[in-house]
Specification:
It catalyses: cob(I)alamin-[corrinoid adenosyltransferase] + ATP = apo-[corrinoid adenosyltransferase] + adenosylcob(III)alamin + triphosphate. The protein contains 8 helices and 4 strands. It is mainly alpha-helical. It has a two-stranded antiparallel ribbon with strand order 1-2. The protein has a two-stranded antiparallel sheet with strand order 3-4. The relative contact order is 0.13. It binds adenosine-5'-triphosphate.
């Protein structure tokens, strides 16, 4: 009998999504919600269900909403943020920075951010709320990391422009995507549909990314450009 192996391509469904919350949910999606190829004796789930083709998609609570709904915009921005951090992390790894484990953790927390956003409280059952509750520890972690880096950095006396080498510049791009994610999450939190700690995390994350961009430039001996008023 063929055994079913979850391959990275299948897990991409998990990474892409705000609706795939836990191992249980992942398996449920992989086994029951996706289309299957029955060629040969191995059943390979397809990544596409075609259910989004008409411009609607699902929240984790099962609501169908148009793709331009603020929930999907916020989910998309969070996904973009994780991708931007992923790229910055690659540049940082190339330079041997030791803080990349923090970026790994943050990418995981962003999955939890997505889960919380994908679960509008108005249509959530108790079990949804329990499974997608956002933890506060990641906010404290960011604050402690910011404080540690700041101790080593020269004080800010000018406006810094995104620069300072590839790691630093990529972290600045991630910072600006983070601020977009924060802007799109703000109205959802304000309407009571998502956890206020999600907005707090994103707000702290942009400060962390700013500080880390400066720290990366410092460690790489790269000059940060500063704002100068044109003559
Ligand atoms: N364009 C989008 N931007 C952000 N989030 C999305 C977008 N489309 C869907 N989502 C969210 O991500 C989840 C996974 O995306 P997926 O592409 O599987 O959805 P779909 O388009 O509804 O389905 P399919 O691609 O199989 O037709 C969806 O359940 C929804 O919560």
């Amino acid at each position: 009998m063929a055994s079913f192996v979850i391959k990275p391509t299948h897990l991409r469904c998990v990474v892409r999504t705000g609706r795939l919350i836990s191992e249980y949910r992942t398996r449920k999606t992989l086994f029951s919600e996706r289309s299957y190829s029955t060629e040969g004796d191995s059943r390979i789930p397809k990544i596409y269900t075609k259910t989004g083709d008409k411009g609607f998609s699902s929240t984790f609570t099962g609501e169908r909403r148009p793709k331009e709904d603020h929930i999907f915009k916020a989910l998309g921005n969070t996904d973009e943020l994780s991708s931007a951090i992923g790229l910055a992390r690659e540049f940082c790894l190339d330079k041997g920075h030791t803080f990349t484990y923090q970026l790994d953790k943050i990418q995981c927390v962003l999955q939890d951010v997505g889960s919380n956003i994908a679960t509008p409280q108005s249509s959530a059952r108790e079990s949804h709320i329990k499974r997608t509750k956002f933890a506060v520890q990641p906010i404290a972690d960011l604050e402690s990391w910011i404080d540690t880096f700041t101790e080593e950095l020269p004080p800010l006396t000018n406006f810094i422009l995104p620069s300072g080498g590839k790691s630093s510049a990529a972290l600045h791009v991630a910072r600006t995507v983070c601020r977009r994610a924060e802007r799109s999450v703000a109205p959802i939190v304000r309407s009571g549909e998502a956890d206020p700690d999600v907005a707090k995390f994103l707000n702290r994350l942009s400060d962390y990314l700013f500080t880390l961009a400066r720290y990366a430039a410092l460690k790489e001996n790269k000059e940060e450009k500063i704002y100068r008023r044109p003559e």
